[in-house]
Amino acid sequence: MNTKDHFMTDGYEALDSYWARTKLNSSQTIELHFIAVLTTVLKLIIKPLRFLLGKSFDLLANIDEDLGEFDVLGSKRKEEYKENYLSQSEIDKFINSGIHGPFQVMNTKEAEDLANECDNLFKNHFHKTTAFGEDILHSLKASNDYSINYLGFFQGSKYRRLWDVLVHPKLSQPLQSLLGDDLLCWRSQFFEKKPGQEGTFWHQTGTFRESDEKPKLEPTNPTHPAIVQLTVWIALRDTNKETGCLRMIEGSFRDGRFERIVTNIQDDLFGYLMSLSYSEIIKTLKTIWYTTGNFKKAQLIFEKIKKTIPSLFNDITIRNLEMKAGEAIIFTSLNTHASYANTSDDRVRLAMAGRYTRSDVHVFKHESTSILPTKSGGIPYNINHEPSIPVCGNPKSPKTNNKIAEYPPI
Ligand SMILES: O=C(O)CCC(=O)C(=O)O
Ligand SMILES: [Fe+2]
Question: Which of 97, 204, 209, 340 could anchor a disulfide with 250, C-beta 3.0 to 4.6 Å?
Answer without folding.
Answer: 97
